Amino acid sequence: MNLLTVPRVVVGFIFLWLSYRLIVFFRPKKSKHSLRSVAILVLGDIGRSPRMMYHAESFAENNFMTYIIGYGGSKPIPALERVPKIQLRYLPEPPTILKFLPFVLLAPFKIIHQIIAILHELLIYIDEPPEYILVQNPPSIPTLALVWLVGRIQGCKIIIDWHNLGYSILELKLPKTHLYVKLAKWFEATFGRTAYAHLFVTEAMRNFLVEEWGLIGQKVILHDRPPKHFHRCSAQEIHDLFTRLKPSISRHKFLEGFLPESKTPFSTSMTDRKPLPASSHSPSPVGTNPVSPTAPTYENIQPPRLRPDRVALVVSSTSWTPDENFGILLEALTIYEQRAEELAEADSRKRLPKMLMVVTGKGPQREEYMNKINTLQATWRWVKCLSLWLEAEDYPVFLGSADLGVSLHSSSSAKDLPMKVVDMFGCGLPVCALNFECLPELVKEGKNGLIFNTSEELAKQFELLLASFPSSPRLEVLRSSLRNATRSLDHDETTHTDEWDWCSWDENWNRNLRPLVLREIHI
């Protein structure tokens, strides 16, 4: 044998051996994973990802060991910290110095940091590979490739929850022809196509992806639905909430003289429970001792009731991102202020109430828009607007206390639906929603809300629904429809209606996803 061929033979053997090891490495391991376990990957703030938190709770309630992996920041729903089978795993944030880089340079560094952190959690921290890995999409990069890789290595079944399309969100920042957009679209289609199962928030999303990318795997439409504890609040619950929120609201000095005067614990800006003073000759209740001879005593304490002089409470939940055009709401509030002033000067019976617009949530455009509105509302008499951050336990109570909701979500892909509207409906709160392609899957015009296209239309809807407040006939029609919506699945399949479809998250999950994840397990 020629001595020159020896290195080539050695290299050839090494290449064949490495090829064999790679094939073995990437071959699916069908017996390695642990049954009844799931890792849920959220490449975002866990506390601001309600759908994924609800997934975690549902898996745990079905006896799955549940790991939810994502970033910290906001407080998660109480169930995630209370249920024993749920473990929260927080990813480390990228180094602060990277935040000063331009987006084009920041993105690659951020992705590398995320890859290391995610692989550490999925391959090292979790001792036994989970049966399922549920990943939220978007973001697509790098999560879809990473869960595909881990699935190949560990034998896990990958479930992709398609909230939206990642490349369409990138198009909000970059032109459609940009290399990053093209790569993002290819990446999403390539690594998202072959999952074990695909969950879709809308029929439009399913139809589009099946047609465009030819998705392989189980396909389940899982509409967003509110958790079972969301409900319309009683006067007592509203009273307790606004008693807690008074310090936060009182910090906004522009509300002085706008909200009705209140004195806790007997009244708030929304509720009143003025006690009846006892006569000086009335005997003290049995078993009580007055604090002093001059202290006031009361015959009874009245339960809280909504104040007839309260302002109309309107709420919009937003992430303050480019796909939610807050400028439309700003213009609508300006028109409403002008219209309310006109009716007041005309001494018309058709007066409009004062409106307190509360915008919840955090995001990049918050400061910009709040500066604009603070300049405008300095001279407003009928409208005031404030930004308020609510903890997870207070958020549904606030929605259940409000009179009207506003959704500014327009969807970068026009294929997803706003979770905020689902939450509002769960709390019995009618909604005015910005129109886009698949919105009618959720908002039924004139039944559970109204749909607008412009700021002028939104302002007219405010006037229509809030006229004669607090006794607003048009608003009551929408509230009544939400109250009467069926929230139980105790119906035969043949009686399928829109109302029947409106149920709690638990009912919806158990009906659509539970059979899929338990199909190979015999109890």
TrEMBL record:
<keyword id="KW-0328">Glycosyltransferase</keyword>
<keyword id="KW-1133">Transmembrane helix</keyword>
<protein>
    <recommendedName>
        <fullName>Chitobiosyldiphosphodolichol beta-mannosyltransferase</fullName>
        <ecNumber>2.4.1.142</ecNumber>
    </recommendedName>
</protein>
<feature type="compositionally biased region" description="Polar residues">
    <location>
        <begin position="279"/>
        <end position="300"/>
    </location>
</feature>
<dbReference type="Pfam" id="PF13692">
    <property type="entry name" value="Glyco_trans_1_4"/>
</dbReference>
<feature type="transmembrane region" description="Helical">
    <location>
        <begin position="6"/>
        <end position="26"/>
    </location>
</feature>
<dbReference type="GO" id="GO:0005789">
    <property type="term" value="C:endoplasmic reticulum membrane"/>
</dbReference>
<dbReference type="InterPro" id="IPR026051">
    <property type="entry name" value="ALG1-like"/>
</dbReference>
<comment type="function">
    <text>Participates in the formation of the lipid-linked precursor oligosaccharide for N-glycosylation. Involved in assembling the dolichol-pyrophosphate-GlcNAc(2)-Man(5) intermediate on the cytoplasmic surface of the ER.</text>
</comment>
<dbReference type="GO" id="GO:0004578">
    <property type="term" value="F:chitobiosyldiphosphodolichol beta-mannosyltransferase activity"/>
</dbReference>
<keyword id="KW-0808">Transferase</keyword>
<feature type="region of interest" description="Disordered">
    <location>
        <begin position="265"/>
        <end position="303"/>
    </location>
</feature>
<keyword id="KW-0472">Membrane</keyword>
<keyword id="KW-0256">Endoplasmic reticulum</keyword>
<keyword id="KW-0812">Transmembrane</keyword>
<comment type="pathway">
    <text>Protein modification; protein glycosylation.</text>
</comment>
